[in-house]
């Protein structure tokens, strides 16, 4: 999806395909328990959440829906380097009538955000970065959060590769997703590699857990 010259039709098809993949793999369900737990320990409302590299916006929007059902006031911002992805996500938020979710364009590695959030998270973004960029991202996330950093990503494994190959073909007709899915797993970090990069980025005392299908979650709390 990062290739130049990609048409809006192809890009939109790929983002819709990834939304189905995220639904099937329960991306927001991996992140939500940590956010819900934090909501019980902080008094200020609304809880402010930043989703870095938010793509089509479905994860951020799903989290806002979960918060709404739980009676937890949130403001969710999503930032992405792609102007089309931001427009796509904003249109989806409008259709879902979730005014508490906003999206804006930002290359987070070049333009760190100028405000603090209670939760700073990213989902399926780290595997797009090299090691130096990953260390930079962890450092930026730790400086931007008041409370919690959450990173949800793919776990490089043979099982994960074949699950991605099969799942992407079953869930979407987008040839871009068919190609990107397995390649993303092949380029992902192992949990041990990601943990080492997080330490280099200034995080310590974090927790990592495995999740279906072939995912991991890194959770770091300032407290």
From TrEMBL:
Domain Methyltransferase: 49-144
Domain of life, per lineage: Bacteria
InterPro entries: Methyltransf_25, SAM-dependent_MTases_sf
GO molecular function annotations of the record: methyltransferase activity
Pfam families xrefs: Methyltransf_25
Record-linked CDD domains: AdoMet_MTases
Keyword Transferase: yes
One GO BP: methylation
Keyword list, A-Z: Methyltransferase, S-adenosyl-L-methionine, Transferase
Protein name: Methyltransferase domain-containing protein
């Amino acid at each position: 999806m990062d290739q130049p010259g990609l048409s809006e039709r192809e890009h939109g098809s790929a983002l819709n395909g990834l939304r189905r993949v995220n639904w099937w793999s329960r991306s927001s369900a991996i992140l939500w328990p940590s956010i819900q737990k934090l909501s019980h320990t902080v008094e200020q409302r609304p809880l402010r959440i930043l989703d870095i590299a938010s793509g089509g916006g479905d994860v951020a929007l799903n989290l806002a829906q979960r918060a709404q059902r739980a009676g937890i006031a949130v403001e969710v911002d999503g930032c992405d380097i792609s102007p089309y992805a931001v427009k796509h996500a904003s249109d989806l938020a409008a259709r879902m009538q979730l005014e508490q979710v906003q999206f804006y364009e930002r290359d987070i590695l070049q333009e760190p955000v100028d405000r603090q959030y209670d939760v700073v998270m990213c989902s399926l973004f780290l595997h797009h970065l090299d090691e130096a960029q990953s260390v930079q991202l962890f450092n930026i996330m730790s400086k931007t959060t008041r409370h919690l950093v959450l990173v949800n990503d793919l776990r490089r494994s043979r099982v994960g590769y074949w699950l991605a190959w099969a799942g992407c073909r079953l869930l979407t007709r987008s040839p871009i997703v068919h190609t990107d899915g397995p390649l993303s797993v092949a380029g992902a970090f192992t949990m041990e590699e990601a943990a080492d990069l997080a330490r280099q980025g200034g995080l310590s005392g974090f927790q990592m857990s495995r999740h279906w299908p072939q995912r991991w979650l890194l959770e770091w709390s300032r407290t």
